[in-house]
Amino acid sequence: MAQTTILGRVGQLLRANINALLDGAEDPEKMLDQLVRDFTNNMSEAEDAVAQTIGNLRMVEDDAKEARAAADDWGGKAAAASKKADELRLAGDAAGADKFDNLAKLALSRQISFENQCKTFDTQIAQQTVLVDQLKDGLNKMRIRRDELIQKRDELVARAKMAKAQTQVQQTLKNVSVMDPTSELSQYEERVRRQEALARGMAEVNANSLDEQFSALQGEEDSAEVEARLAALKAK
């Protein structure tokens, strides 16, 4: 049952879509580190399961070996007892011959019992061997998967960070486009133009005032000349 559970976990991890997990992770780097830890922990459990299953298999193989040895031993005892019975029967000792024939039968019965045990052990060995092969295969795939994950960790983290940076840049550009500064520049330019126009207007006003003063001064000079000439005429 424990081995089946480990096989299930191995299969689940091998089917895990790493890219999908990264897409849903707030922190891809932490997610990858957690995946590595999960793989390592489950690999440790799988290694324990494989070791336990192999240990059980070796025990059954030892039991089968002992059972075969016992079957062979009882077979040899049966053959020896039967031979002794035949010798006694030839010697005219029927009672002794029957005794050893009974011993031969008993030995054959024990031999059959151990042979049946061997059949049972052989079935268990075959089942355990299949399970060990499955666990070893799953464990090897997990090791390959973990190695790939470790090798790609830096690459995936870099890609995730790059994607985040690109998203931030695009968001910044979007905000800049929304906050268009040209409208404020246009308003400031209009203010400058108004100030420039005001300055030109003031310059023209000042220029007109000076012209009028010079004109008044010229008028006073002309009047004085007229008075002087009139006085000269009267003097004559």
Main sheet properties = none
- Determine the structural class based on helices, strands and strand pairing: mainly alpha
Task: Supply the number of helical segments.
Answer: 5
Percent in helix: over 70%
The helix/strand order is HHHHH
Structurally, how many domains make up the residues? Answer: 2
> What coarse outline follows from CA principal-axis ratios?
rod-shaped
Q: Which regions contain 5 or more consecutive residues with pLDDT less than 50? A: none
What integer value in Å does the Rg equal?
57 Å
Mean pLDDT: 80
Strand content: under 5%
Question: Keyphrases for this structure?
Answer:
single chain, 236 residues, mainly alpha, Helix Hairpins, 2 domains, 5 helices, 94% helix, rod-shaped
Quick structural summary:
With 236 residues, this protein is an all-alpha fold. It has helices spanning 2-14, 18-23, 28-90, 94-178, 182-235.
Explain this structure.
The protein is mainly alpha-helical and 236 residues long. The chain has 2 domains: 2-178, Helix Hairpins (Orthogonal Bundle); 180-236. The protein has helices at residues 2-14, 18-23, 28-90, 94-178, 182-235. The radius of gyration is 57 Å and the shape is rod-shaped.
Q: What is the fold's blueprint, element by element?
A:
Elements: H1 2-14, H2 18-23, H3 28-90, H4 94-178, H5 182-235
